[in-house]
Amino acid sequence: MSTVYSSPSPTLRKTLSFLSSPSLPAPPPPPPPSLFNFSLSASQTRVKMSSLSTQASTTLPPLLENRIVLGCGAIGVDFLATVASYPKPDDKIRSTSLMVQGGGNAGNALTCAARLGLNPRLISKIADDTQGRGILEELKADGVDTSFIVVSKEGNSPFTYIIVDNQTKTRTCVHSPGFPLMIPDDLAKSSLTSALDGARLAYFDGRLPETALVVAQEANRKGIPILIDAERKREGLDDLLNLSDYVVCSAKFPQAWTEFPSVPAALVTMLLRLPNVKFVIVTLGEDGCIMLERSVNQDVHPEEMDVDSVLEDLKQRKDNNTAMPTCISSIVTKLQAKGIGTVSGRLLIGTAEKIPPSDLVDTTGAGDAFIGAVLYAICANMPPEKMLPFAAQVAAAGCRALGARTGLPHRTDSRLAPFLELTTQMVQ
């Protein structure tokens, strides 16, 4: 990959001025994200003109016939600064690099889905400011339909400061919500009908709760399956979960939501409380994920099995010497959680790719990338045994570059060939 060097543009100089002037109330406009991303080092400004993903000359299968997905949730601008180590209180340190890029859970997940070959539509809200226009431009460049995004004449678009710690490979986020917030009246009935027309799947990240509920209720009425990103307990999230068909959780959510001590018991509780949910996935970062899938087949193993014991058995069967993502499944049986109840289904463990420390850059948006891949997998009718490693592979690709979107792979990425059944011939 060639690298182009240039001196900072006027837009970037304004960015740097903003970062050194904390009294200003709002961030500067981002650079045109569909054209390039800025990344500052101590000695130069790098303008990245191409994707970091490994591309291949491929013979692709046809695109999915029904690949429209509708998302409703957060979008914004991310101001990412990498540092050698996270500062102590009252420290003054220098960043080792800087990037300004689009962000927000829904924006990231749908960008990922678009690069994989879906046709995403997005319901959200921004302000008619320079940041908002940059957000729209970047989403459009990646193939996300922005025609259902509400643009306020006043206020400010959402933004987030993200500090990436090179030492611990962690990131710290400070979010500033947009204003004014989106309300159901912002979305005309005709727009909602058009947004849902032909949709294979609807996805909600738990933000914009009032609007999200209106959209989810209409999707449910039309028989469109719903996936919920349950990152943490939020206002209105329970109403969305009650309409959901699929749930993807953060590591802490199942136990926080159910108040049960173990993840497997919490997952059983979630399926008992949410009778329409087909599966729940809890993502665990470098430890992969755990999935509980409800069985619709009455032909299950008759013996009840303790769900915590099943999980321990699956962990013993993991091949810790394999770097690539894998999946291990229990049999379909009656999974019992003591004092809670029983669910007919199976438990699965998905492993994460073992990324060499030298390749791991930034975990920002890894969960969003995982969800974007799950959206594709559902539309493609992938079985869980393929879906979980596929989603882990997509998320790992994103962790190899700064920011939530820079490293997101495209459909033609050779690393995805085993999952998309591509015939590849690497370009020399």
UniProtKB/TrEMBL annotation:
GO MF, one example: kinase activity
Sorted alphabetically, the keyword list is: Kinase, Transferase
Query: Does the keyword field hold Kinase?
Result: yes
Q: What is the top-level taxon of the source organism?
A: Eukaryota
Under the heading Pfam families, the entry gives:
PfkB
| Domain Carbohydrate kinase PfkB: from-to ranges | 77-302, 352-410
Query: Can the keyword Transferase be found in this entry's annotation?
Result: yes
PANTHER family, from UniProt? KETOHEXOKINASE, PHOSPHOTRANSFERASE SYSTEM TRANSPORT PROTEIN
Give the protein family: Belongs to the carbohydrate kinase PfkB family.
In its UniProt entry, what is this protein called? Answer: Carbohydrate kinase PfkB domain-containing protein
The species this protein belongs to is Ilex paraguariensis (yerba mate)
